[in-house]
Amino acid sequence: MRCDKKSMLLYAVTDRRWVGRQTLCEQVECALKGGATCIQLREKELSDADFLREALDIKKLCRKYHVPFIVNDNVKVAIECGADGIHVGQHDMQAEDVREYAGENMILGVSVQTVEQAVLAEKNGADYLGVGAVFTTSTKPDADAVPRDMLKAICGAVSIPVVAIGGINRHNISQLSGTGVDGIALVSAIFGSEDIERECRNLRALSKEVMRT
Question: Which class would CATH give 5-212?
Answer without folding.
Answer: alpha beta
